Automatic annotation (TrEMBL):
This is rhamnogalacturonan endolyase. One of its GO terms (cellular component) is extracellular region. SUPFAM superfamilies: Galactose mutarotase-like (SSF74650), Galactose-binding domain-like (SSF49785), Starch-binding domain-like (SSF49452). It is found in: Secreted. InterPro entries: Carb-bd-like_fold, Gal_mutarotase_sf_dom, Galactose-bd-like_sf, GH-type_carb-bd, RG-lyase_II, RG-lyase_III, Rhamnogalacturonase_B, RhgB_N.
Amino acid sequence: MSNPAHRRPASRKRRKALAAGLASVAVLLGAGLLGVGQPWANAAANVSFDTGTGLAFTINGTNGNMISLKHDGTELAASGQAAGQFESGWSSATVTGKTFNGGSSILVSVANTSIGVTQYYFARKNDNTVYMATNISKALNPGEARFIARLKPSLLTTSPVAAKTGGFGTTVEGSDVFANGSGQTASKFYSSQRLVAQKPFGASGSGHGAFILPAYTDMSSGGPFFRDIEVNDTGSAVNITHYMFSGHQQTEALRLGLHGPYALALTGGEAPAARSMDFLASFIPGMLSNAQRGGVSGTASGTWNGLTATVALAGPNGQYWGQVKSGKFVIGHVKPGTYTATLYAGELAVGATKSITVTAGATTTLAMTGSVPAAGTLFQLGTFDGTPAGFLNADRIETMHPSDSRMSAWKSSGYTTGGGAAKFPMAEFKSVNSPAALNFTLASVPANGVKLRIATTSSFAGGRPAVAIGGYTSPASASPAPANLNSRNVTRGTWRGINTTYTFTIPASALKTGSNTLSISVVSGSSGETFLSPNVIFDALALDPA
């Protein structure tokens, strides 16, 4: 490119237009767009990049927000909102960048040193994808980490129905669960996938599609079965969110370090396939290459009753997992470090955990064993799998509020073991359906009484089960307070918490041959109204001779 200083003087009108152009050129020069692997340089104004095949975006040089995202020339950013940003955006940030291979690719860095976060954006020619990573160096306040794209709902119309909150005028709970005139509910929380099975997600329409590719979630928290908000149509914007951390029924702390990479891909409407992003290790600071990582392989055994088995690793350096197939598993792409290994049958941890150390360039071997709890011999409701599957309303709770008009009634005058789990509610709420009366029959009373196991997947506000039968009331010691996750659960579409089993030994004197009625209550030192009262979520109930 010729030096502007050597050009002929321009007219006043042309000089005014040229001045604006030179401001952009200065940014491009500063960002290294005219060189190969140019050093980092501050952006004095906005930074734009066009892939040449349909995607163009602009990063604000002052605050680092993605202020424009175009597909085939059409602006996708929702009116008055950023096309993309970390959390809700910043008022100011240090925006720097550089390019590679003669300007065919660009890496933009957006740093906010006061909160300890650096957001990276990488793009390249002939690839309609903005690749991203987020480095978090210290605890966040508020304690969330997410990238969120806010796009036009008039163009992208295929958001999940359960998460389309626009037009739902009645607030049911907080500021995030709503109902329409028919009593049907919607919430941003009702669009989620388990991390272990997460696929690209987003919305499409009008010849456009915008999708998050989660890719590497090893620095997120909560384990393989954690889920969080993905797509929400508010009426004014389609919010497509990649959560790296939140307090939404979270069982682990925030992991510090580089999160990702992940990506925002634009298409003609079709959902993109998952893809490797290993190549980004050559561009994103702090990203480890495959050669700098290790792996784990081994065997897993036990009785799982047909459930899918998973081996998961968790430690300060990340979380990883692999499915067990024919008794073997492989976990790759693991950062060096020490991890706790857990075997799951379904979503229930079984057997003892183990400590394992992974080193770069090596595969560590591991043998895991564990079995699901034995089935109840006198009766059993549900399956010991770490989920409420099979219980009443369990098939709806991920996409509806408990108050939704489509839910089956939560309260009944009584339940019978003969009715099976499908007639027994998956959750018990202190102010809604507690106590619950469960009728069962004994052919004879065991001499030493019976042992009742109540397995739960989650609780809210200190809720835990207590029982009473035939003049017997369980002692407080049998219902210890659960771990406090300080978060709503089923009202936000999740029952995933910390699996806990409560065991009650009921004396023979409280039982009789024939029909017996067991009263199950939710106890807690806390209180609340209706579905925000203390609760427990059931995994299984089993009765055996003591």
